[in-house]
Design goal:
heterodimer; A: alpha+beta; Barwin-like endoglucanases; 10-stranded mixed beta sheet; 20 strands; B: 4-stranded antiparallel beta sheet; binds adenosine-5'-triphosphate; binds magnesium ion
């Protein structure tokens, strides 16, 4: 065994360049793998993960302090948890809850009402708040503000806010709660000084999968209390739905990218490793002639590639871990959620075991071939390309009207068909990746724009809730106010109301629309948009869930009232719990219902913030919220797509680099001969680069259609996974001309990869190679 | 027989060190157009090194090499390659043919690198192979040719661009005595046609038959020089 080790170490050292290339390829691929796994992890149910991590509250309940005391609430909980099969798993509270109004501090904290909860610490059995900056409030006068974990918000630390008619508070910490339990936290003493009207209780239930589970659990929870004690409760399912609506838009595509990255990295590592073993066959032959048993030879070879392979894997894992965090943040920042990001231990374990396993597997195939060769066969097989291959091509080429260095280069790949095929595969993968990446990027942007209604809705004006300032203007007054502002083009009034579908259990969300609804940017994949009473447009996912289709009739129920409606269109949307309904339908159900928000589109170039401020001044009971226009996240997605493409493209280039290094090494004598008869360094470079550029051109020709096909498959699969019917504009994202422009990508990759080793071949000293047999 | 012309190769105080090893030590000599010079000496004395310096395959540690009026140390790598292409023909002990090209294409290659059209280069290559008596082997590959045939292909390739000087490093070293003889005859013919020739050999008979002058080297130094009686 010692001999095997020594031989392997010596061989890895002697082929320093080869070993380095192998290590670098494995390293790059490992970085890609770690990032891809992080991406996959982050993209798979980010809400659920964070929710589990923080032991999120299934229900956030608000009790009226005037009706029920804290002691009474605690007793209720004790009674519930002492039952044989308690429905409640964990409880936190009671916490005092107050609403304060803060003045504008000119920083990343909007002025207005702030819901404040008194808590002694961020931990506890439920809702373990992620205190990501600063510390928890320790005494009166201190406040922790809820903000997503973006470095940008750190500037808030140390700032002071003045509560209207209340204390001055210093921001000592920044935290985020996936359960959205408060907008800010203070000490329990401090909240008492703010005359809290509400007591907050946080519950986790044993059964909490559906709305009905939660409803049942809450009924149990409040059974012994006066009917008016429970003011309101918020289900985590609503929060989840809300997160999903923004975040999940990109998740399928990011998942697709992750999988692609894994595949490419594995393929290229396999490519380079087997190349290294094939190139080492001559050496294998010598080992055999020295008396190594076939198994020892294979062991020596595996060790030889594993040494640099493992080194590359280790470094790559570390670099990948370092790169993943900022990269994922970059990617998910556009997604706009506060979910926890990072690479799990499992991902590192998979990488550290998986990558070397791939190296071993890739080495085993050619090594076991060498295992079967006799010593003499192996020596002659490895020493030079087997003569006779590609001679017909060489003959044709030498008579061609091409510069001789070009025609010689064109012939080179035919001398080593096996290796050329491997290199070609690397290039095809690289080109397909570029094509696929460009396609996914476009699909993603198009989809994201649609989901975010980019260019359709600029700002959403929420109507103040009972716990906020309520507007003095009525519905008609508000709409008139909005429409009278300069630069307003369209206004849609919507009411979000929980309703039932007659004959089906559970609640669904209905968005009743009035005004310029058709300008909201809903994308229809079938049917038409709302135009009259009794009409519904439903998302694809909703139709799938209930087995409905356009043309079907539904009976909508709100309390005791019923009305029937027809599904007139299918919208591209991933919600399976939401329908859009024309306003007269709501009037039929309950004529007293009012819009909960107004969606506004402004004319081109209008300042959204200015508009919001004007609205707020005119009617303090309105709460404008600027709709994120995709641009910034578009940039983030572009950046991350480019980084990934670059990484994979580079790995493909290293594959080419590796091939050229190997073939110059093998063809040392031929190169020396060519130089001795007057081939200039430039001609040598041209020859070697041409040999790869030819493969690159071919690779581009094959890679582009493969990338396009892969794009189709991935997009269809991903859209299907989120319950969407694929509209053509997400699939046909390229112009033919653009695809043709993509084809030379292979040539570019091959040329770049070949250039450096080709140049060093051109500079190689030639005397030694000429005088030996 | 040999009309002594202008100086084609001039070496002045040429030194070549490989680390500690002194391969050539203060060598000065001249070769005139039409001369056939043999370099002889024990193994490792620096004969191949001398040839490599003249061919511009390697650069001297000090001293100068002037071939056909060009001082090689002033040339860039590219100019050196062009210099080899146009002024130097080389023949090696182990032929150094390209395995994947036919005999004809091996020979034509030398001209094709200069930009000569394939058809033209092949025509001239075939003429040369014909002159060397192996035109019928033109389409065969090096692997199936005999040693003598391979060496003749190599000579044809070396002559392709009408070099100012033909350098041959032990051209018969890998051949049996009979084929060696044939190659010797070939070189002699070339010499008699006026080709300037510099020949490294261990073989006294080869020197006797082909060379007009013999230079002896030992430990990197020129230790003697004698003119030859030409035996025809
Ligand atoms: N590239 C090199 N690196 C180091 N030493 C070298 C190199 N080339 C030649 N030498 C040394 O220079 C000396 C001269 O070598 P050279 O090949 O010129 O000898 P030679 O006369 O041609 O020998 P032979 O008759 O065996 O071919 C030798 O000692 C050799 O070891
Ligand atoms: Mg020698």
């Amino acid at each position: 065994m010692r001999a095997v080790w020594r031989v392997a170490v010596a061989a890895a050292r002697r082929r320093r360049l080869q070993s380095t290339v192998l290590a670098v390829v494995v390293m790059c691929s490992t970085v890609a793998i770690v990032v891809a796994l992080g991406l996959l992890e982050a993209a798979s149910a980010p809400f659920d993960r964070t929710f589990a991590e923080q032991r999120g509250a299934h229900v956030v309940a608000a009790f009226d302090r005037a009706v029920v005391s804290d002691d009474r609430l605690v007793q209720t909980v004790e009674k519930q948890t002492s039952e044989d099969e308690p429905a409640v798993e964990a409880v936190a509270g009671p916490f005092g809850q107050a609403v304060i109004t803060v003045a504008d501090i000119g920083q990343a904290l909007p002025p207005g009402p702030l819901t404040v909860v008194g808590r002694a610490d961020p931990g506890g059995p439920v809702d373990r708040v992620d205190l990501w900056a600063g510390r928890w409030a320790g005494k009166p006068g201190e406040i922790v503000v809820s903000r997503p974990a973006e470095p940008f918000f750190r500037e808030l630390l140390g700032a002071t806010v003045q509560a209207e008619g209340g204390p001055r508070l210093t921001i000592v910490g920044l935290a985020s709660s996936v359960s959205r339990t408060a907008e800010a936290w203070v000490t329990p003493d401090q909240v008492q000084a703010m005359s809290p009207k509400i007591t907050q209780m946080l519950y986790r239930f044993t059964e909490a999968d559906t709305d009905d589970d939660l409803q049942k659990a809450m009924t149990g929870m409040t059974s012994g209390l006066p009917g008016s004690a429970l003011l309101d409760w918020q289900s985590y399912l609503v929060v989840k739905q809300d997160v999903a609506r923004t975040a999940s838009a990109y998740l399928p595509f990011l998942t697709g990218f992750g999988i692609l990255g894994l595949l490419v990295a594995v393929l290229i590592v396999g490519n380079v490793v087997s190349g290294a073993v094939v190139a080492g066959q001559r050496h294998i032959g010598m080992l055999k002639s020295l008396g190594f048993t076939p198994n020892q030879v294979v062991a020596a070879y595996l060790t030889m590639v594993l040494l640099p392979g493992f080194a590359g894997c280790l470094v790559g894992t570390v670099l990948g871990g370092l790169a993943a965090q900022p990269l994922l943040r970059l990617v998910f920042q556009g997604v706009g959620s506060t979910i926890g990001l990072g690479v799990g231990v499992w991902a590192y374990a998979v990488t550290l075991l998986g990558v070397p396993a791939v190296v071993v597997l890739a080495a085993l195939i050619p090594a076991s071939r060498a295992h079967r060769l006799s010593a003499a066969q192996a020596i002659s097989a490895g020493s030079a390309p087997r003569p006779g291959r590609g001679r017909r091509v060489q003959r044709l080429l030498s008579g061609a009207r091409l510069p001789r260095s070009v025609s010689l280069g064109l012939g080179l790949p035919f001398a080593r068909p096996g290796r050329s095929a491997l290199t070609l595969a690397a290039v095809i993968i690289g080109v397909a990746t570029v094509a696929l990446a460009s396609g996914l990027f476009r699909t993603m942007t198009a989809y994201g724009d649609t989901a975010q209604r980019v260019g359709h809705v600029h700002t959403v004006i929420h109507v103040g809730r009972p716990d906020q300032t309520e507007p003095k203007l009525d519905d008609a007054g508000i709409e008139a106010l909005l429409r009278s502002q300069p630069g307003v083009r369209y206004v849609t009034a919507d009411a979000w109301i929980d309703i039932h579908l007659a004959g089906r259990p559970g609640r669904i969300m209905a968005q009743f629309l009035r005004g310029d609804a058709e300008t909201r940017g809903d994308v229809l994949v079938a049917g038409r948009y709302l135009s009259g009473p009794g009409e519904v447009v439903a998302p694809s996912a909703f139709l799938r869930r209930f087995g409905l289709e356009v043309g079907d009739r539904l009976t909508l129920a709100l309390g005791e009232a019923h009305t029937s409606a027809t599904i007139v269109g299918e919208a591209m949307d991933t919600s399976n719990n939401l329908i859009m309904v024309s306003w007269p339908t709501l009037t039929a159900l309950d004529p007293d219902k009012r819009p909960t928000q107004y969606e506004v589109r402004l004319a081109q170039g209008m300042d959204v913030e200015k508009f919001n401020a004007a609205v707020k001044t005119a009617e303090p009971g309105l709460y404008p919220a600027t709709k994120s226009q995709i641009d910034e996240s578009g940039v983030a997605i572009t950046t991350s797509t480019s980084i990934f493409t670059l990484l994979l493209g580079m790995v493909a280039m290293l594959g080419v680099f590796n091939t050229v290094v190997l073939s110059t090494h093998e063809r040392r004598r031929d190169l020396a001969v060519l130089k001795s008869i007057g081939m200039t360094p430039r001609q040598v470079t041209v020859m070697m680069v041409t040999s790869m550029a030819a493969l690159g051109a071919f690779g581009g020709l094959l890679g582009v259609p493969m990338g396009v096909a892969a794009h189709r498959v991935i997009v269809l699969a991903m859209l299907d996974a989120v319950g969407l019917t694929a509209p053509a504009f997400l699939l046909d994202v390229w112009q033919v001309a653009e695809l043709i422009v993509l084809m030379p990508a292979g040539v570019a990759m091959a040329t770049l990869g070949a250039f450096v080793p080709a140049r060093s071949a051109a500079r190689m000293t030639i005397v030694d190679a000429l005088h030996t047999e | 027989m040999t009309t002594e012309g202008e100086v084609v190769v001039r070496l002045e105080r040429l030194r070549k060190h490989y680390g500690e090893t002194v391969a050539l030590d203060d060598v000065s000599l001249e070769i005139r157009a039409g001369e056939a010079v043999a370099v002889m000496g024990p193994s490792g004395c620096g004969k191949s090194t001398l040839l490599n310096m003249i061919a511009g395959l390697d650069r001297p540690t000090s001293g100068s090499v002037t071939v056909h009026g060009e001082e090689l140390s002033t040339l860039s790598e590219t100019r050196l390659a062009l210099f080899r292409r146009h002024r130097i023909g080389m023949v090696f002990q182990f032929f150094n043919l390209i395995d994947d090209l036919s005999a004809l294409d091996n020979v034509a290659l030398a001209a094709q690198l200069t930009g000569t059209s394939a058809a033209h280069a092949r025509r001239r290559a075939l003429d040369l192979l014909d002159e060397l008596g192996i035109a019928d082997r033109a389409d065969l590959y090096p692997a199936v040719l005999s040693g003598g045939e391979r060496q003749r292909v190599a000579v044809a390739r070396a002559l392709m661009n009408r070099p100012a000087v033909l350098l041959a490093d032990e051209p018969t070293g890998a051949l049996d005595s009979h084929t060696g003889e044939q190659v010797m005859d070939l070189l002699l013919d070339l010499h008699q046609l006026g080709q300037t020739l510099l020949l490294v050999t261990h073989d006294e008979r080869l020197a006797q038959r082909c060379a007009s002058r013999v230079i002896a080297i030992e430990d990197g130094r020129v230790t003697g020089e004698r003119a030859m009686e030409q035996s025809a």
